[in-house]
Amino acid sequence: METLDWTIMLGTLLGIVAYGVYHTRKVNNVQSYLLGDRDLPWWTIGLSVMATQASAITFLSTPGQAYDDGMRFAQFYFGLPVAMVILCIFVLPIYYRLKVYTAYEYLEGRFDLRTRTLTAVLFLIQRGLAAGLTIYAPAIILSTILGWSLRWTVLFIGVLVIFYTVAGGTKAVSVTQKQQMIIILSGMFIAAVILVLQLPPEVGFSDAVGIAGKMGKLNVVDFKFDPSNRYNFWSGMIGGVFLFLSYFGTDQSQVQRYLSGKSLTESRLGLLFNGLLKVPMQFLVLFVGILVFVFFQFQQPPLHFNSANVEKVEESAYAEDFANLQAQHNTLFLNQQGEVYSLMQAIEQEDEAAISQAQQRLQEFRQTDRELREEAKGLILQADPIAKVKDTDYVFITFVTNYLPVGLVGLLLAVIFSAAMSSTSSELNALATTTVVDLYRRSWVTGKSDRHYLNASKLFTAGWGVVALIFASTASLFENLIQAVNIIGSLFYGAILGIFLVAFFMKQIKGRSVFLAALIGEALVLIIFALNAMEVIEIAYLWLNLIGCLIVMALAYLLHLLWPERPDLASA
Amino acid sequence: MPDTQPKTPTEPDDSRPPIFSSWRDMYWFVLLFHALIIAIFYWFTKAYS
Predict the structure, then answer these.
(1) Could you tell me if residue A201 is left (phi over 0), alpha (psi between -120 and 50 degrees) or otherwise beta?
(2) Is the dihedral of CA A259, A260, A262, A266 positive or negative?
(3) How does A387-406 read in b/e, with b if 16+ C-beta sit within 10 Å?
(4) Residue B4 CB neighbours (<10 A)
(5) d(Cα A278, Cα A87) in Å, to the nearest integer?
(6) How far is the C-alpha of A12 from the C-alpha of A327, rounded, in Å?
(7) Who's near A366: CB < 8 A, 6+ residues apart?
(8) Which residues have C-beta within 8 Å of that of residue A276, sequence separation ≥ 6?
(9) Which of A135, A136, A326, A444 has its CA at a distance of 20 to 30 angstroms from the CA of residue A423?
(10) ipTM (interface pTM)
(11) Which residues, at least 6 apart from A503, have a Cβ–Cβ distance to it below 8 Å?
(12) Which of B11, B48, B49 comes nearest A97 by C-beta?
């Protein structure tokens, strides 16, 4: 990396951190620290909500996904605008009416203290482990490609985030996210423009789109109903609404963003802003991946995008085999490039027969390309049996570091670091808020001064930051732990969502029924998980979200019917 | 720091949205905009496939 890139990257990141700390220097009470004085306008809330959801992996993996699989992943977000409208109608007015600090605080008023505490603890377990992964996942990719130490990359992201999140609390998170989101959107837009400019002079933007389309990459919408197809219109609209209702309605890292709004109106507008912009933003990120795909039709791509894996195999006994594959790949590329030009010409002449022939030949070339890449992965695994050979996450960062002009490399790295920092800061902030409001102040240490709880909030923020850092620094030693974190999320998320859905939509059900249903439901989810681990049954762990939620709702209803609570014992 | 007990509910300030006469119209705008985006994506898929 050149000096200019370092200057731009560090200047951008440190500038945002300094702005956040300066802007929140007068935060001196818990209300300010945890809810940002409830004075944020809608555009800050909207950008903050978007920045919380968009982690660094979004900007590293999504273009690679488009490169490999086309644009159908955009459909995953189709349910989001509908979820935003439902939350604005049903959920936001409830949170605002009760003036809650956390989503779980609402559950005490609706049910009882034990249900609130149980839900808060489930959230802390799940989000506390995920926070480390939010730092680790981009750090492993950036350190591999840039040749940086993994530990220093983790520390760089972690220490900066902890510094400004501890200093300014919620408001620091929101104001820095506003800046970070502006950098992220500008950076991705500039990357798209540069990609078009870097195509050969005879290939224009419309040619690039035409080539991508004819090579099957512009598959944005698929209306065919197919439950086995992960991304289509129906899975996005039905599954997506369910998923985004739970994420935006019950996850404190999101709830805290819109609870810091100036008014119910501003919070609603912030969520609707997210509903309007999120799908086009994902389209942009995926489209950048499509442009990278077209770029590599005219520029020789590597046989394998993870350069660290390539180095390993080149230093092993399989170096010669790999070089042979590389030579075949180079020849294939030249042949394929000629066919892409033929396709382009056929599109210009609107010659359907020639287009069809070119498509057929390109399909054969791409099949051969896939086979060569698989063989390369096989060699890498022979050289290093524990190597991670999925290389789509490395596609975009390879383009950034090798083909962007000096200066823009620094800007795009700032985009990726900004995304890592924005989502991590929300997580730390939400973890500390839930710990203080739902456990520490409510049950552990009651009746202390505002200053005491402010200091406790800062300490818990720093504490959760250290937990995330330790996990991120050691995650490479425990690859299975990462898988475990994803599984742990699915083990608890269903029960949390079930509790909230009962609270919002099954008004007759009271605290005892839902608490027992949550305990039994969680136990059943754990039993199903154990049976799956013992291979007695076979079920993908993502389904545990839905199973946990439905069990809690059904059991709560059954318990309510079989063992009704007396009105005087029930909460309002 | 607020009380440790659940708070008394108060009606939030629920003013009209800035660009439409009611929230219902605002929600319809978001949903129709989303439908338009999907329609454009569908056209994009068909036009270039």
Answers:
(1) alpha
(2) negative
(3) eebebbbbbbbbbbbebbee
(4) 13
(5) 16
(6) 41
(7) A215, A336
(8) A81, B30, B33, B34
(9) A444
(10) 0.88
(11) A106, A107, A110, A111, A514
(12) B11
- Residue contact B17–A269, C-beta within 8 A: yes
CA distances from A128 to A124, A152, A312 (A): 5, 21, 34
Closest by Cβ to B48, choosing from A78, A218, A280: A218
Tell me the angle at which helices A113-146 and A56-69 cross, rounded to the nearest 10 degrees. 70
Four-residue CA torsion sign, A391, A392, A395, A396: negative
User: What tens digit of pLDDT does each residue of A535-567 get?
Assistant: 888 877 667 878 899 999 999 999 999 988 776
Confidence of residue A477 (pLDDT cuts 50, 70, 90): low
- Kindly tell me the sign of the dihedral angle through the C-alpha atoms of A538, A541, A542, A546: positive
**pLDDT for residue A263:** 93
* Six-digit token string for A422: 């924005």
* Beta carbons of A464 and A166 less than 8 angstroms apart: no
**Cβ–Cβ of B31/A81 closer than 8 Å?**
yes
Q: Are A304 and A373 in contact (CB under 8 A)?
A: yes
- Can you read off the two tokens belonging to residue B38? 């999907």
**Across the interface, do B27 and A85 touch by the CB < 8 Å criterion?**
yes
The answer to whether A438 faces chain B, any CB pair under 8 Å, is: no
Is B31's Cβ below 8 Å from some Cβ in A?
yes
For chain A, the average pLDDT equals: 91
Residue A184 corresponds to which tokens in the numbers above? 């992220």
Q: What amino acid occupies position A313?
A: V
The yes or no reply on domain A3-295+401-477 and CATH 1.20.1730.10 is: yes
Using CA atoms, how far apart are residues B47 and A278, in angstroms rounded to an integer? Answer: 23
**Nearest residue, CB atoms, A74 vs list B4, B17, B41:** B41
DSSP at A536:
S
Q: What is the pLDDT of residues A103-113, one digit of tens each?
A: 999 999 999 99
Q: Measured between CA atoms, how close is B21 to chain A, in angstroms?
A: 13
Q: Which residue of A has its CA nearest to B48?
A: A213
Conformational region of residue B30, where left means phi above 0, alpha means psi within -120 to 50, and beta covers everything else: alpha
Contact B34 A81 (CB under 8 A): yes
Q: Which residue has tokens 């109903």?
A: A225
Nearest to B7 among A78, A99, A449 (CB): A99
Tokens 């839930």, residue? Answer: A434
> How far is CA A341 from its chain centroid?
37
- End-to-end Cα, chain A, rounded Å: 61
Q: For the CA atoms of chain A, what is the radius of gyration?
A: 25
* Residue A107 in contact with partner chain B when CB distance is under 8 A: no
CA A22, distance to chain mean position in Å, is: 28
Give Cβ neighbours of residue B29 (< 8 Å, ≥ 6 apart): B20
Close Cβ partners of A69 (under 8 Å, ≥ 6 residues apart): none
- Lookup: tokens for B24: 């219902």
- Which residues does A566 contact at the CB level (< 8 Å), separation at least 6? none
Residue bearing the bigger pLDDT, B8 or A30: A30
CB contact under 8 A, A97 and B31: no
Q: Which amino acid is at A198?
A: Q
